[in-house]
Amino acid sequence: MDARSLKEQILTLPNILTSLRLVIAPLLLYVAAMGEHPLFVTLLGFSLVLGFTDGLIARKLNQVTELGGKLDSWGDLITILAVAMCAWWLWPELIRQEAPLVIAVLLGYIVPVILGFLKYGRITTYHTWTTKLSLVLIGIGILLAFVGGPLWLFELSVPILVFAGIEEIAITTILPRWQSNVPTLWHAITIERERAKEEVMETEEKLRTVLTNIEDGYFEVDLSGNFTFFNPILCKYLGYSEKELLGMNNRQIMTEETSRDVYRVFNGVYLTGKPAQAFDWDIVAKDGERRFFETSVSLLRNSEGEPIGFRGIARDTTERKKSEEQLYHASRMVALGTLVSGVAHEINNPNSFIMLNTPLLREAWETALPILDEYYKENGDFVLAGMNYTEMREKIPLLFSGISDGSKRIKQIVDDLKNFVRKDVPDVSQPVDINEVLKSALALASNMIYKSTKNFSVRYGKNIPPIKGNFQRLEQVVINLIQNACQALPDSERSIRVSTFRDKEAGTVVLRINDQGRGIPAESLPHITDPFFTTKQDSGGVGLGLSISERIVEEHGGQINFASWVGKGTQVEVTLPLDNNS
Fold first, then answer.
1. String of b and e for 493-529 (b: at least 16 CB within 10 Å)?
2. Which of 27, 220, 386, 423 has its CA 20 to 30 A from that of 125?
3. Check: CATH 3.30.450.20 for 214-316?
């Protein structure tokens, strides 16, 4: 608003008339102090006319403003106080005679003003109809009394003013914020009702915006499990339209096992009133795809506090589950490879003896055959190893063939197993940004980190050139090490610190992870990368994670080193060579 427009809003006719009342008030005091009865009555009458007409003119000219309301209120207050003092000076006997009514007038007007000032920090400007009426009647009654007229009009107007004061106090109580020009208590109730309605609508709009934009699914179901409300992202995850999902029972999108688990959880929430946190749902989307959700559920109540259903947040963990399953599968494959390697070594050694010695035994048998045949011709049939020679002579070649074929079969089986678990040599020639690997791994492990520690920090090294490697396999290493750090923490107050940096002198990139966990005993530290070595048997550890990680790091020409102190924590450093051209 420019200066000219502001000036036009201030210098209006109603505001000028009201300002004259503020000027007349001290003149009334001066005239009363001089004892000028007729002049006082004349000025008072003029002030009352101004007080009655300024509001009418403002409404007629459409110049009702907040400033005008404030000026009018100050004019009323100052005029009433000035008239009370002047009346005491000019007509003390009359004031003594009507003292209760005079006090009632002062309290009926001033008390609401004081209460309003205490609540809002400024004078109230309601200008209710009853207040205006009572002030006009009181003004006329006072003028009549001062000129020797009857007192009944003044006496009649006092209860009206007291009622107006009570009404203004009620308005102040109802309205939480300062409001100008409130004609009646009903108007105040209507204003507050509309304000509350607007706040509810604004809150609903904010909630709708939040629910629309969050990446988690929000839902509400009745006590039978039928969907009554949900956000668009839930429709997106499940593949159903809003029309299709509304009214559908949640059991229709669940596996049978999940349906039983959900019923058990919902029943527990209903009976206890306590929310259930982060339990898994196995969901079947409309297209038949199997999806996983981490869900929290709480009880939904009506305005009387009665349970009417359940509300919840569902976070899609499908990709994370797939990553975990891939990691688990990879771990099992490595475990099988390690097992096969061990078994192959143990079997191949004795099988090699069989394969090498069987031809020698066959040759020895064939060399002895002429001698045995000659003996048979001269002496007839004889017993050899409990069997007649003529029968043994036919069977021994078959036995040698069986032994030879069996050992070959053993070798083939071992080779087939080794080929099954042996993966192709991974491509480690891709340019890889170690910071991007770390960011991706932390995103996948974010839920585990959040549940494990309140003190997690990460520092990404600057100007780290790319290395040659395999992004996914290095990501697997970082996830494994972060998981170990989280599992090592005895409570969530302990910290985990992760950092990357470049060692220019060594020509390497280093990933370092420090945790304030339980630490690893010195006697166990040399064995932690051995297959199947674990200190977490009670929590289901199989001792393959670090073995896998070490193998992957070695595939990249790097090293993984551990330092640990019992009760203080562990430090892991993964060192990877830089490309010679970096």
1. ebbbbbebbbeeeeebbbbbbbbbbbbbeeeeeeebb
2. 27
3. yes
**Band of pLDDT at residue 345, cut at 50, 70 and 90:** low
Reported pTM? 0.38
CATH class (in words) of the domain with range 430-577: alpha beta
As a whole number, mean pLDDT of residues 196-219 equals 76
User: What is the per-residue pLDDT across 455-479, written as a single tens digit (0 to 9) for each?
Assistant: 999 999 988 899 988 888 888 889 8
pLDDT, averaged across the chain:
80
Q: What is the pLDDT of residues 164-182, one digit of tens each?
A: 888 888 888 888 888 877 8
At residue 507, the 3 state secondary structure works out as coil
Cα separation, 247 vs 96, in Å, equals: 77
Q: Where are the alpha helices (DSSP H) in 445-470?
A: 446-452
For residue 351, count other CB atoms closer than 10 A to its CB. 18
Q: Which of 505, 490, 507, 502 is nearest to 570 (CA)?
A: 490
Cβ neighbors of 510 (< 8 A, separation 6 or more) are 500, 501, 502, 503, 573, 574, 575, 576
What is the rounded CA–CA span in Å between residue 141 and residue 161? 13
Alpha carbon distance 519, 226 (integer Å): 50
Contacts of 44 (CB under 8 A, 6+ apart): 28, 83, 139, 142, 143, 146
CATH number of 3-194: 1.20.120
User: What is the C-alpha separation between 580 and 576, in angstroms, rounded?
Assistant: 12
* Within this chain, domains 3-194 and 430-577 share the same CATH topology: no
Domain boundaries, the chain: 3-194, 214-316, 321-421, 430-577
**Candidate from 390-399, 481-490, 562-571 with smallest mean pLDDT:** 390-399
CA dihedral 155→160→165→170, nearest 10 degrees, is: 150
